[in-house]
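Hi all, posting the design record for the shared folder.

TITLE: backbone redesign
STEP: 1 of 1
STRUCTURE INPUT:
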C-alpha cells in the first residue's frame, strides 16, 4: 500500500512539472540587449595621432560592451562618405568622424544621419556646419597649440626667422598655424620668411624640405603642424648641414617627438591627448543615448613638451 502511494505521489509531481513547463509564457524570457554598433572614420591613418585617437574610441566603446566599425577616409571625401553610407543599414548607434578634407564636405553623411536620428560626433577638427547637423565637436585646442609653440620659441629666440610646414587640407592644422601667427603679435622681432605645405606626412615634407632650406638660408626656426613633419624636417636639416642652426617645433607629443626633444633635435612639441579625446567623444555619444544634454563644443587642452619633461612622454 505504501509503495503504491509513493508511485502515485511521484506521478503527480512529474505531472505538475510538465504542466508548469507547458504553461510558462515564452514572451517573458529575458534576453541580453543587442550590442550597439558605432562607426569611426578619419582623414587618414598615416599619423600616429589618429591611430591613438581611434584606439581611445575603440577602448571606450568596448568598455561599454559594444562594437566599432573603423573606416579609413584616406584623404578622399567621396570614398569616406560612400563607405559610411554603405554601413548605415546596420542600425548604427553613432558616428565619430574626422572629415577627409579641410572643407569638411560630408554633407551627404550629415543629412542621412540626421534623417535616421544617428548622432554624429566630429573629432579633432572644426568647420562651418549648422549646429543642428551634428551632436558635438570634440577637438584639440589647436589655436592654443600654435600659441604655446610661439611662446616656447620666444624664450630662446624672440627675433626668429621662421619657416612654416603647413597642411592646408586639415582645419586643425590651419588653426595651429593661425594660433602661432596670432601669438607672434607679442613678439614684433619675429618674422615668417617662408611656408611650405608638407601634407602632414614624411613623404610630403621630404619632397619640399631641400628646396625650402635652399631658398631660406637665414631661416633659424621651423614650426611644423605635427611631429611627423617636424621629424622629417630634422632629417632634411641634417642632410643640408644645418644641424644646430635651426630649431624645430612640432605638435602631437609623440614618443618619437619626445625622444628628439630629449636628444636636442627639437625644441618642443605640444602634446595632444588622443586617448582622452577618443574617450570623451564616446562618453558624449552615450550621454546623448541616455537622454543627457551634450555641449556642442568640447576642447581638450594641450601640454607643452620640452627637454625638462620629455621623459614623461617616453613611457
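Okay, here is what came back for every position:
SEQUENCE:
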Amino acid at each position: 500500500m505504501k509503495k503504491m502511494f509513493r508511485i502515485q505521489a511521484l506521478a503527480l509531481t512529474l505531472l505538475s512539472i510538465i504542466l508548469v513547463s507547458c504553461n510558462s509564457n515564452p514572451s517573458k524570457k529575458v534576453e541580453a540587449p543587442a550590442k550597439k554598433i558605432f562607426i569611426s572614420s578619419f582623414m587618414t591613418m598615416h599619423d600616429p595621432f589618429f591611430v591613438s585617437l581611434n584606439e581611445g574610441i575603440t577602448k571606450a566603446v568596448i568598455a561599454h560592451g559594444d562594437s566599432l566599425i573603423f573606416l579609413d577616409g584616406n584623404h578622399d571625401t567621396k570614398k569616406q562618405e560612400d563607405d559610411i553610407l554603405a554601413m548605415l543599414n546596420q542600425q548604427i548607434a553613432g558616428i565619430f568622424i574626422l572629415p577627409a578634407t579641410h572643407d569638411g564636405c560630408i554633407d551627404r553623411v550629415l543629412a542621412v544621419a540626421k534623417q535616421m536620428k544617428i548622432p554624429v560626433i566630429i573629432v579633432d577638427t572644426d568647420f562651418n556646419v549648422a549646429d543642428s547637423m551634428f551632436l558635438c565637436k570634440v577637438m584639440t585646442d589647436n589655436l592654443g597649440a600654435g600659441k604655446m609653440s610661439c611662446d616656447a620659441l620666444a624664450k630662446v629666440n624672440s627675433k626668429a626667422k621662421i619657416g612654416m610646414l603647413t597642411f592646408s587640407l586639415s582645419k586643425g592644422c590651419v588653426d595651429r598655424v593661425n594660433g602661432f601667427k596670432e601669438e607672434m603679435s607679442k613678439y614684433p622681432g619675429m618674422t615668417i620668411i617662408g611656408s611650405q605645405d608638407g601634407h602632414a606626412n614624411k613623404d610630403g615634407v621630404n619632397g619640399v624640405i631641400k628646396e625650402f632650406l635652399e631658398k631660406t638660408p637665414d631661416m633659424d626656426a621651423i614650426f611644423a603642424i605635427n611631429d611627423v613633419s617636424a621629424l622629417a624636417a630634422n632629417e632634411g636639416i641634417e642632410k643640408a648641414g644645418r644641424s644646430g642652426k635651426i630649431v624645430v617645433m612640432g605638435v602631437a607629443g609623440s614618443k618619437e617627438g619626445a625622444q628628439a626633444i630629449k636628444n636636442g633635435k627639437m625644441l618642443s612639441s605640444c602634446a595632444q591627448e588622443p586617448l582622452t579625446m577618443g574617450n570623451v567623444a564616446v562618453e558624449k555619444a552615450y550621454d546623448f543615448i541616455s537622454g543627457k544634454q551634450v555641449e556642442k563644443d568640447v576642447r581638450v587642452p594641450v601640454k607643452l613638451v620640452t627637454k625638462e619633461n620629455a621623459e614623461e612622454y617616453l613611457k
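COMMENT: The mean pLDDT is 89.
Let me know if anyone wants the other runs.
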